[in-house]
Amino acid sequence: MILRMQPVHFDADQKLLDYVQKKIDKLETFHDRIIDGEVIMRLEKSHLNKKEVFGNKTVELKINIPRQQLFVKDSSSTFEAAIDLALERMSRQLKRQKEKKQPRKASIQSKVK
Fold first, then answer.
1. Could you tell me the CATH superfamily of domain 2-112?
2. Separation between Cα atoms, residue 84 and residue 67, nearest integer Å
3. 3-state helix, strand, coil in the chain (%, to 5)
4. Which of 3, 23, 25, 100 has the fewest CB atoms below 10 angstroms from its CB?
5. What is the DSSP string of 67-90?
6. Per-block average pLDDT, block size 10, for the chain (113 residues)?
Protein backbone atom coordinates (compact mmCIF):
# COMPACT_ATOMS: atom_id res chain seq x y z
CA MET A 1 0.00 0.00 0.00
CA ILE A 2 1.22 3.48 -0.83
CA LEU A 3 1.36 5.54 2.34
CA ARG A 4 2.10 9.25 2.66
CA MET A 5 3.28 10.43 6.08
CA GLN A 6 3.28 14.08 7.00
CA PRO A 7 4.62 15.34 10.36
CA VAL A 8 3.38 18.84 11.29
CA HIS A 9 5.23 21.13 13.76
CA PHE A 10 8.05 18.61 14.32
CA ASP A 11 10.58 16.41 12.54
CA ALA A 12 9.71 12.71 12.76
CA ASP A 13 12.55 10.29 13.30
CA GLN A 14 12.91 7.13 11.22
CA LYS A 15 11.90 4.91 14.15
CA LEU A 16 8.46 6.58 14.36
CA LEU A 17 7.96 6.44 10.59
CA ASP A 18 8.85 2.72 10.54
CA TYR A 19 6.43 2.08 13.42
CA VAL A 20 3.62 3.82 11.54
CA GLN A 21 4.35 1.93 8.30
CA LYS A 22 4.43 -1.42 10.08
CA LYS A 23 1.10 -0.76 11.83
CA ILE A 24 -0.67 0.61 8.75
CA ASP A 25 0.39 -2.38 6.65
CA LYS A 26 -1.64 -4.60 9.00
CA LEU A 27 -4.85 -2.87 7.83
CA GLU A 28 -4.68 -4.87 4.61
CA THR A 29 -5.77 -7.94 6.59
CA PHE A 30 -9.16 -6.29 7.21
CA HIS A 31 -9.84 -5.07 3.67
CA ASP A 32 -8.08 -6.40 0.58
CA ARG A 33 -8.81 -3.48 -1.76
CA ILE A 34 -7.04 -0.59 -0.01
CA ILE A 35 -5.67 1.80 -2.62
CA ASP A 36 -3.54 4.18 -0.56
CA GLY A 37 -3.41 6.12 2.67
CA GLU A 38 -2.24 9.29 4.36
CA VAL A 39 -1.08 9.80 7.93
CA ILE A 40 -0.83 13.33 9.36
CA MET A 41 0.97 13.50 12.70
CA ARG A 42 0.46 16.83 14.41
CA LEU A 43 2.01 18.21 17.57
CA GLU A 44 -0.68 20.37 19.21
CA LYS A 45 0.25 23.37 21.33
CA SER A 46 -1.44 23.84 24.66
CA HIS A 47 -1.28 27.19 26.40
CA LEU A 48 -0.47 26.80 30.08
CA ASN A 49 0.63 29.79 32.17
CA LYS A 50 1.08 31.89 29.01
CA LYS A 51 3.81 29.59 27.77
CA GLU A 52 3.66 27.61 24.56
CA VAL A 53 4.08 24.03 25.63
CA PHE A 54 3.64 21.16 23.22
CA GLY A 55 1.03 18.81 24.64
CA ASN A 56 -1.18 16.33 22.85
CA LYS A 57 -0.10 14.42 19.81
CA THR A 58 -2.80 14.08 17.15
CA VAL A 59 -2.91 11.53 14.36
CA GLU A 60 -5.22 11.82 11.35
CA LEU A 61 -5.54 8.74 9.17
CA LYS A 62 -7.16 8.70 5.71
CA ILE A 63 -7.57 5.43 3.81
CA ASN A 64 -8.85 5.26 0.23
CA ILE A 65 -10.80 2.21 -0.89
CA PRO A 66 -12.72 1.96 -4.18
CA ARG A 67 -15.34 4.74 -4.36
CA GLN A 68 -14.81 5.80 -0.74
CA GLN A 69 -12.44 7.52 1.67
CA LEU A 70 -12.35 6.58 5.36
CA PHE A 71 -11.09 9.02 8.00
CA VAL A 72 -10.24 8.85 11.71
CA LYS A 73 -8.60 11.30 14.08
CA ASP A 74 -7.25 10.51 17.54
CA SER A 75 -5.11 12.22 20.17
CA SER A 76 -2.95 10.92 22.98
CA SER A 77 0.14 11.81 24.98
CA THR A 78 2.41 9.86 22.58
CA PHE A 79 2.28 9.31 18.84
CA GLU A 80 2.45 5.53 19.25
CA ALA A 81 -0.66 5.52 21.46
CA ALA A 82 -2.51 7.89 19.12
CA ILE A 83 -1.66 5.68 16.14
CA ASP A 84 -2.87 2.57 17.96
CA LEU A 85 -6.19 4.27 18.81
CA ALA A 86 -6.65 5.47 15.23
CA LEU A 87 -5.86 2.01 13.85
CA GLU A 88 -8.46 0.38 16.09
CA ARG A 89 -11.14 2.73 14.81
CA MET A 90 -9.99 2.39 11.19
CA SER A 91 -10.01 -1.42 11.37
CA ARG A 92 -13.63 -1.31 12.56
CA GLN A 93 -14.57 0.96 9.67
CA LEU A 94 -12.81 -1.29 7.16
CA LYS A 95 -14.53 -4.40 8.52
CA ARG A 96 -17.90 -2.67 8.33
CA GLN A 97 -17.31 -1.58 4.72
CA LYS A 98 -16.21 -5.06 3.70
CA GLU A 99 -19.30 -6.61 5.33
CA LYS A 100 -21.56 -4.21 3.42
CA LYS A 101 -20.08 -5.37 0.12
CA GLN A 102 -20.43 -9.11 0.80
CA PRO A 103 -23.82 -10.74 0.20
CA ARG A 104 -25.47 -12.37 3.18
CA LYS A 105 -25.53 -16.18 3.27
CA ALA A 106 -29.16 -16.34 4.37
CA SER A 107 -30.40 -14.26 1.45
CA ILE A 108 -28.39 -16.34 -1.03
CA GLN A 109 -29.74 -19.62 0.36
CA SER A 110 -33.34 -18.40 0.24
CA LYS A 111 -32.95 -17.43 -3.44
CA VAL A 112 -31.57 -20.89 -4.28
CA LYS A 113 -34.59 -22.70 -2.83
1. Ribosome hibernation promotion factor-like (3.30.160.100)
2. 26
3. 40, 40, 20
4. 100
5. TEEEEEEEEESSHHHHHHHHHHHH
6. 91 95 92 92 72 74 94 94 96 90 64 59
